[in-house]
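Handout for the seminar on molecular recognition.
Each group receives one record of this type.
Step one: identify the two inputs.
Step two: read the structure output and locate the region that could contact S-adenosylmethionine.
Step three: write two sentences on what you found, then compare them with the reference statements printed after the record.
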Amino acid sequence: MLSFDEIDTVFQQHYFEGMGSITRGDAKFLSGLIQASQPHKCFEVGVASGMSTTFLLMALAKLGPERKLVSVDISRQYYADRSKQVGYVVDQAIPDLGCEFELHFNQWSADAETFCDDAKFDFAFIDAHHSHPWPTLDTMLLLPLVASGTWIACHDIALKDIPRFAKETGPFHIYQAFPEPKKKSTLERKNIGAFQINRRHQEYEEALLASLAQEWTVSGVIKKSFYDRIYQMVDQYYSESFAKEIRRMIEAHNLMINERRAKQKAAKQSKPDG
Ligand SMILES: C[S@@+](CC[C@H](N)C(=O)[O-])C[C@H]1O[C@@H](n2cnc3c(N)ncnc32)[C@H](O)[C@@H]1O
């Protein structure tokens, strides 16, 4: 496990207010989970500056050079400082990696399949889109690609308790919906948790649906490029009734958002000028 001295050295050099990264306590939780579960092949979705990636790599390096992390992010540019590339902290903090690492831009959970030719993942960390249902969709897409015994860690399970992030309920719902074994950080705001996968992915359909039944807070439609891939994955890996329900939910959400937007547009147009 990483010591607080090792964690703090990285924070002192690279942290700035508003960088949107995990905290030192979260880094301790993740490194403890890696130490306890000894994974060989890990997947991370949501890299941003690369702070969490740095700690995952440092924890994996302690297990041996053949351990591997595959990290993906939907962007190439770091959202809090667009002059920097996603993952830039990794290069600065650990120029000599002690394990294998792949970083992929413009990719998301559905792309995890691309990296599973040789073996499934045995550890995953989800810290991407926080509005509900994205963390549940990420989990759903990853479940068929993880080995039995895998811990899936989720960041920001308590984010919704901060008033300005009240709509970011995604991580909370997926953590709540999943059955034991689960772990939650005891440090700081207890904002990171993990659940262990020890059944076939189809046996989690009920938990996924329980999470998806909670109010969706994502403000826009789920775009075609995403839902086409989601439908492809659920058709391939999950039961027919589950796949049908996922389609129904996404279509109902998109219809609701489109109707709301049309009403807002009509109301704006009917307002007299000035
Ligand atoms: C909160 S930041 C990640 C912080 C990082 N884990 C850390 O602790 O340093 C969220 C990142 O997820 C990315 N993202 C948002 N939606 C995504 C999606 N659907 N798939 C993959 N990445 C996504 C964003 O571009 C952003 O870089």
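Reference statements: DSSP finds nine helices and seven strands in the chain. Residues 240-270 form the longest helix (31 residues).
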